[in-house]
Give the backbone structure.
Amino acid sequence: MKNFETLKELVASLEEDAVKFYEKNNKAAGTRVRKGCQEIKNLCQTIRVEVSELKKSDTVTV
């Protein structure tokens, strides 16, 4: 669950740069958005692997 919380924080942190890029045409902000998206991609892969492992081991509790 920690990785999922980190993912939510990362997405929220990109919002300001996304606004700067799309609405104010700030190219440096676009670079930061692309970097953040790559981090999101990598974190999502980590979460996918984690979820698959937990499903296989049946250790998920509700």
